[in-house]
Give the backbone structure.
Amino acid sequence: MKESYFKLRDEENILKVRELRLVLPAFCSEFFLGIEQQTSPLTRLGYARDLKIFFDFLSTDTQEFYGKKPSTLTFEDLKKLTSTHIEMYLSYLSVYKANGKVYRNGDKAKGRKLASVRALLKYFFKKGKIDSNVASVVDTPKVHESEIIRLEVDEVVKMLNTSENGDGLTKMQKGFHSHTKLRDFAMLSLFLGTGIRISECVGLNVSDIDFENNAFTITRKGGNRVILYFNNEVATALKNYIEFRNNIKDLPKDEQALFLSLQNKRMCVRSVEKLVKKYAQCVTPLKHITPHKLRSTFGTNLYRETNDIYVVADVLGHKDVNTTRKHYAAISEDIRRKAANVVKLRDE
């Protein structure tokens, strides 16, 4: 039997971190070892990538560290860091060039990269290896709330119809559509009917689906296995696709993935993103719709039906309801609307 998608993904990320450690200061290996039990391989990979950018910056754009290879930096160098270096780094991140390519970062990306540096310095400060965490006194860039984008009810209907009948697709797209329409309709129905994340969708196996209870098991962030439920519309879409899937010629017997590419392999995250974009552009070309926006659409609709933010947070797998409130449009809109009707100016 093949290894699970998530186990293979974790192993791949572990190997990527090991590769990056070769070009990072030696003390970073101690850091990654120290946080291994509290973090996922994906989180550590994010730290490794961010720290590479930081140490490259020190060696190319600061007087104190100019010309030093990141891999040769020591704790003594780390002790020389000041809050000014961190502020210079945030400025540098706005636009910089590496390997002949120009990179740009907005405030949200800057905040994440600052958090990686903070985590490193905090770890060694707690260990007594450095005297202070200079990154902790630097303010996180203020992230301005962006417009919450989601599909309206009529757009949901149109998107599902388009995936089913192919209206609006190009001639070339229609050629592929005849082979993928059942898969595409089932996947979009699952996104819009349950609000799962793209990684959760990609990682689904056929054995995770339970039609007797209209339920399925997903792997959440952190590796937790959770049972979610779907309605009869989603069930019908999944049944039709699985019946089609089971009759695919040359399908490897050990292939467990629910959603398959035309090469009869598990679809990757990028392929799913392209699939959603293809149908969304037919329905609402001015909106940038991604799988996460389909998740936002579900969360918004669920809140309007239940009027319970805690139910929405639980179903979506949010540990903090503030995350839910921040990302789903109808929640803040409806709360403001109710507030307007609660206060009476004159008794009638």
About this structure: The first strand starts at residue 95 and ends at 98.
